[in-house]
Fold this sequence. Notes:
By secondary structure, the chain is mostly helical. The protein contains 16 helices and no strands. 64% of the residues lie in helices and 0% in strands. The radius of gyration is 22 Å and the shape is globular.
Amino acid sequence: MKFLERFLNNMDKTLSEGPFKIFHPMFGAINTMLFTPGQGTTTGPHIRDAIDMKRFMGIVIFALIPSIMVGSYNVGAQAGVEGLVAAFMFGFLKLLPIIVVTYAVGLSWEMIFGYINGHEIYEGFLVTGILLPLTLPPTIPLWQVAVAVSFGTVIGKEVFGGTGMNLLNPALTARAFLFFTYPGDISGDSVWVALDGFTGATPLAAAAASTGSAVEALNSAGFTLNQMFFGFTPGSVGETSTIAILIGAVILLVTGVASWRIMLATVLGAYGMGLIVQFFGGEIAGGMRTLPAHYHLVMGGFMFGAVFMTTDPVSAAGTNVGKWIYGILIGVMVILIRVFNPAYPEGMMLAILFGNVFSPLIDHFVVQANIKRRLNYGK
């Protein structure tokens, strides 16, 4: 390993100048992935901790492994592939090209902006590059993935100044771009089963299409609560299995990487709003208004978004009180969108982007309230 470290250090000096310096940002990203950088900060105040951005991002990717494994198996199972290993390999080979395209295109943009702005490639795209593929259907055309990643990276992050400066979650920005630009390839019944000619509605679509009891509609479509909890239903690759996502949540919470306040507030906001909607609408309406509140928590991308997207430390609220407000706002918005917008029964993506936009304002008012309270103490 010492030989490799010396080799990379020599390459660092060679690529920092000369005709090949355009590749220096990409080299820096690889170098910091393999070894801890030898240089430290020299100016400004420092917060020293055992964890840095590289380890922070690595833990998030580690927490996503259960969702990747169960999601890959589910893609194969939904396509009718029999056998645990065969179904997993079928699904993984559908997911792998999406991941490769996402990283190749996204890191290319990171390298270009790193060269133009004179900084190295930051580790932020490591998580974005795996989150986006897990929120997509397995049949998504790869060229559309490339276009969406370009939009999410450039418009969602780089125009704000790059990693740590973005207002919106880049992965969700890319997904929103795909949803509104190519809706036929990311919604409907024909995109969730990775087999030509086969269709399959998601549980959310089946519930939204019902005119009576949503639970009866789900049962008629073959979806039980257990199936939705364990993830054996059509849907985005990484979003179907609640149990796999919760394993990832435990990893994030134990390591202190994600905010438990945001996760809990999002769940409480959605559950509370779900109870209110069912109480006032269940007897006189059909469809999503009859859906029990706990069903919302295991359907669609709710739990994946609550664990991995709302807790994005850059685009989420930063104050403790603000985290509660931010999470509850997203949870409430999810249910409102699902119930009162029949054209879009998912809701989690738009709710999080809505929360991202308001998170700076939430933090501002929380800080101002603290200042006002302390000034009153001095009177």
